[in-house]
Amino acid sequence: MTIGSAMKAIIDGFEFSGTLQGVEEIKTGHINSTYRLSFAQPDSSVREYVLQHINGVAFKKPDEVMENVQLVTEHLRQAMQEKGEDPENRVLRVVPVRGGGILLLDANGGSWRAYDFIVNAESRDQAESPAQFGEVGRAFGRFQNMLADFPIARLHETIPDFHDTRKREAAFEASVAKADPARAAEAAGEIAFVRARKEAMCRIVDMIEAGELPLRVTHNDTKINNVMLDRDTGEALCVIDLDTVMAGSALYDFGDAVRFGASTAVEDERDLSRVALDIDLFRGFAEGFIAETARGLTETELLNLPLGALVMTYEVGMRFLTDYLDGDVYFRTAYSDHNLVRARCQFKLLSDMERRRGEMDAIVRELIEKYR
Prior knowledge:
This protein is of the alpha+beta class. It has 2 domains: 115 residues, 2-Layer Sandwich (Phosphorylase Kinase, domain 1); 242 residues, Aminoglycoside 3'-phosphotransferase, Chain: A, domain 2. The protein contains 13 helices and 10 strands. Helix 8 packs antiparallel against helix 9. The chain is globular. The mean pLDDT is 95.
């Protein structure tokens, strides 16, 4: 793509190596604007970086986001080195800003950051097989393990009350009350769907408050495309997109991965007859995740992993619906009812999860017995 003077000034502000050769916008993800940069090196090789503009609506304090990222990546790098493993290409490396720091402010006050590109790797929007999804499960399980001794009090809460279901529900009701009447009418069925589950879906929050579930360092956006896979071997190399790393429950990470990766359809599928839980993909991810965490998580955590899938599907659907009622101010949209389509898709998936909850519980119990 052709870059203007403003973009060139941003690129020049980072300590990139070599001569800029190309800029390509990566149009995946709902939140940040992302670019892939190519730099020619003196030895004729090419080095690549990722440049991102941080969404100021989603992240009110980008400096705190980057402090979290820096702390977590340094801990992960040290943990790998202590195990005799090479963290290169397996842990994100933040590119410094010229003159110091890791966050660059542009002329309009926008925040930018950059990372080394993970080479010879690719991400997938959908799992091609249970085995591949299992590798993703192992990646997030290892992520959990390597951060088990991280002092969570050091982490900023980058999005306050991110998984506080009761506060999400309160925000949802406030949006219903002030929504455009036409939008509220169009979403009447979905509004009723949320209200029918308001108490049941607060179970994780209740268990945390009661001390039945511990707080851990959690990723909080465990979509399959946030794991980079080796192009040659299929091995999971690196967990990326650490903007929402905060204190939380392991159930959230497990649940969000299942919600996104074990669905039979994409997140904005209009034909709801195509939306269901793929139980084989569920088993694949659960096996990878539990194989890595069976001895680290408590029995209560492990047994309630399927609950995480239900709660996260409900929560994300409610967030899409809330944004639709608010006039689409948070998530990127491609058309006028995009967020409503997304919400309907999540709620259809949740309905299928509710129907198959017994199967999910049985699989998890079987895997706990296998790996503990």
